[in-house]
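Exercise 4. Each item below gives a protein and its sequence. For each, produce the structure-token representation.

Item: Starch-binding protein (Dyadobacter beijingensis).
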Amino acid sequence: MRSQLLKTGLIAVSLLGLFSCEKTLEEYNPSGLTAETVFTTPEGFETLVNAAYSYQRWWYGKEEGYNIAETGTDIWTSGAGEVYRDLTQYLNLQGSNTALTNEWREFYAAINLCNGGINRIEQAGLSATLRPVREGELRFLRAFYYWHIVETWGGVHFTTTETNGIVTTANKTPVETFYNQIFEDLKIAVNNLPATQPQYGRVTKGAAQAFLARMYLTRGMNKEALDMAKSVIDGNYGYKLEASFADLWKMSNLKSKEVIYAVDYSANLALNDLANSTFNPYGHGRGSNNAHLLFLMKYDDRPGMTRDITNGRPFNRYMPTRFLLDLYSADDARYEGSFMESWYANSATLPAGIAKGDTAVYCTKKDIPDAIEAAKKYQTYDRADIYLADGTVKDNLRYPTLSKFMDATRASLNEAQSARDVFVIRLAEVYLIAAEAAMQTGDLAAAAQYVNVVRTRAAKAGKAAAMQVKPADITLDFILDERARELAGEQLRWFDLKRTGKLIERIKKYAPDNAVNIQEHHTVRPIPQTQLDAVVNKSEFKQNAGYQ
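Answer:
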């Protein structure tokens, strides 16, 4: 079982609870014991630490996390299958949103577990060598969860004390207090953690430094962000960019040297987080990594096409804005490495003139002359078919599909679970953090150098020179464009736009479907109504401004 927020209260009641299985983090099952006895043994304390990692799976690779962190921005809007239009298009967004409710519940349960572990670690019986490492992990995880909380909801409930028993009061804490704790925790993590860990998925010194660099950048501490990013880049950790951007997304390459920190999913799907009434009653309703479902266009009702494992199960949740597609130049291999435009006939019933393996559907960001479209035997959807002249969506069923997260290794065509790990921090992001921080400190030459490392890898063969940028090209908007090209879909975009003060401006400029309802208060999300209903100090703990 795992620690869980009670539906009638704000904070978790106990440290003992549902502990989701980890692929490489071995677990000890303390069922029926008390926290006071279990977590004062090394074996029991390992259970606590492993469980603290598991809550990341509620955000990374899950629809709730994608909707909160990636959609509702300048680069994604709603596909026909979207279920959280209130997040993506700010359509009457309120505290009743279930994605926000789920993440609030799980993250505060995670915080309670981290608080308990940090405060109990001296009594856990760990060796002098292991104790600081486990504290470093818990400190990192507490900072990690609190960052998601404070950026999503603003100055909401904060505590570093373990909760036992139902809590019915909550506090409103300044954002600065959250970040003071985040920085304190991450500095301890950086000092305590080793460069490598014996088990994949555990946080390392390099991962803590990379996340700290991200936090410094978020708070405008640009010199510190640059220094910390350089510590990762120059730290001899063995990180390196993949030679090919497309290679990053191969299922055979999940342990890439470019990945600094990942949320680990098991190839044995039973060891992930799918809800099960017997073994995992508090698990996720879909379990494992679901990203492969969310960005796919509806292809399986087109002539010559049927659903298969290779092309995926199309939930049709999110589609790219025209702005995102236009960000990629003809010299940039990241477009082909991120999106697919062609679907090949695989059906037993085929249109006239089309054989199996021939192109059946072609969706492109380009304009195709009508005469050429009419002459094709396959179906085409070009720029004018997908978007109206002002960039609003015309067809939310057919569009170039983000292919980064597709998984052809799934056992069946309708399997919703994927064993794909989620890349939380990549070396490419650290270069872009360094570039932005250098720009903000006035060193445009250094900023261009860091950007060009990423763009050289992104260049098509023979196009590296054409992909280089000059110091004069470096602006905040250029950095945001470059981050979109490199990191599209990787659960960072909403945070990027918020921290730079560009969320509303760029949505209004580049995402007309999302711009209709957006208002100033949407830079924080509504507190879940279930939490507002649960507290007794309602006059102090109120809904965020702008929400009902």
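Check: The chain is about 40% helix and 5% strand.
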